[in-house]
């Protein structure tokens, strides 16, 4: 039985945003996406999630983004990605 989350929200933020509450993170996001599990492992070895122009390898235990493409490109310097519950995007 697969107990990995099947859906996450991804927020792309300026790295200067230091908030920890989801409401503040969502307000400051320059891009958001809901990504669904593909059932495949990404190059990083973590599960691959895809949706809304975003491809991410996410460690479902720590919610760390291990690899990320937005519209086929890596994030620009100064931007970070945060994982939240899909219902919070």
Write a structural description.
The protein is mainly β and 89 residues long. Helix content is 8%, strand content 48%. The protein contains 1 helix and 6 strands. It has one helix at 22-28; strands spanning 7-14, 31-41, 47-51, 54-59, 64-70, 79-84. It has a 6-stranded antiparallel β-sheet. It starts with 6 loop residues before the first strand and ends in a 5-residue tail after the last strand. The model has no long low-confidence stretch (mean pLDDT 95).
Strand order of the largest sheet: 5-4-3-2-1-6
Distance between the termini: 27 Å
Number of helices: 1
Task: Describe the main β-sheet briefly.
Answer: 6 strands, antiparallel
- The topology string of helices and strands comes to EHEEEEE
Q: Top keywords for this entry?
A:
89 residues, 6 strands, 1 helix, 6-stranded antiparallel sheet, globular
Topology:
Blueprint lengths: L6 E8 L7 H7 L2 E11 L5 E5 L2 E6 L4 E7 L8 E6 L5
Antiparallel strand pairs: 1-2, 1-6, 2-3, 3-4, 4-5
What is the structure about, briefly put?
With 89 residues, the chain is mainly beta.
